[in-house]
Amino acid sequence: MYPPIEPYETGKLKVSDIHTLYYELSGKKDGNPIVFLHGGPGGGTDPLDRSFFDPSKYKIVLFDQRGSGNSTPTASLEENTTWDLVKDIEKLREHLGIDKWHVFGGSWGSTLSLAYAQSHPDRVKTLVLRGIFTLRKSELRFFYQDGASHIFPEAWEEFIAPIPEAERGDIVLAYHPQLNSEDDETRLRAARAWTKWEMWTSKLHVDPKQVAEADDSEWSNAFARIENHYFVNNGFMRDGQLLEKQEIDKIRHIPCVVVQGRYDVVCPATTAYALKKVWPEITLHIVPDAGHSSREPGTSKLLVKATDEFAHI
């Protein structure tokens, strides 16, 4: 990854009567524009996200999605759907005076990248995606019900602790009332437990520092509430919509590189493989010694290689 850099411009963009987005620009002012779509949903951006791109070639655009990071109001679920976010990306592009840009996204960011590209294929130069997630019911069931729990039993036990045993037939649904409770203690306990589960499982080798991030109640509250909101609503799309032939046909001409950790249990490789089957033109790299995180060495190396190769397009 490239050395850390600071943005040369930050701003706020009002996208609705409720929501205002934080965005930042870094790298080369007149460079090749690329937009970074963060994960979660609800995760927000991180300064290290700038380092996937050559700052001498790219105009790097980072922004926090509705309710996330420095965008306001924090943790808001109102007017917060996949398609609201797709419209926001377009509003930001227009606001910045960009005609076409590269799109980079991992995990939920890959979901949003595909949804955006399928909605606005004429505005996307290339796609660089990591940890493919299409929000199918089978994917949610694996991570939140019966799959990852077999690999991380001790973390799973902590994750389900806030949920009464009688309600554990649908963990995502059972978390919903707690994450939306008016009682701060109930809501924040649930948010920390929800977030800790994902932090526990995101790397091939569990990173205690990443797990400790769940203790940040403000960040966990936004992350957990927004994720759960999207998941109980099936991403506000048809099950498997992003993989449907008529949707893939809209973006088949766009160069796309996918980097997928072999041992990613958050977004298992089966989804990246399903994408490759319906879109054989993509370049799919399966990293043999990586989990879900973009920060793992094999994954980050291939992501940077992809952005370097696309810098001239």
Write the layout of secondary structure elements.
Layout: E1 9-14, E2 20-27, E3 32-37, E4 58-63, H1 82-95, E5 101-106, H2 108-119, E6 124-130, H3 137-144, H4 153-160, H5 171-179, H6 184-201, H7 208-212, H8 217-232, H9 245-248, E7 256-261, H10 269-278, E8 283-287, H11 297-310
Parallel strand pairs: 3-4, 3-5, 5-6, 6-7, 7-8
Antiparallel strand pairs: 1-2, 2-4
Question: How is this structure best described in words?
Answer:
With 313 residues, the chain is α/β, with parallel strands linked by helices. The protein folds into two domains: 9-135 and 237-310, 3-Layer(aba) Sandwich (Rossmann fold); 138-234, no CATH class. The protein is built from eleven helices and eight strands. The chain has helices at residues 82-95, 108-119, 137-144, 153-160, 171-179, 184-201, 208-212, 217-232, 245-248, 269-278, 297-310, and strands at 9-14, 20-27, 32-37, 58-63, 101-106, 124-130, 256-261, 283-287. Strand 5 (101-106), helix 2 (108-119) and strand 6 (124-130) form a beta-alpha-beta unit. The longest helix is centred in the middle third of the chain and has 18 residues, at 184-201.
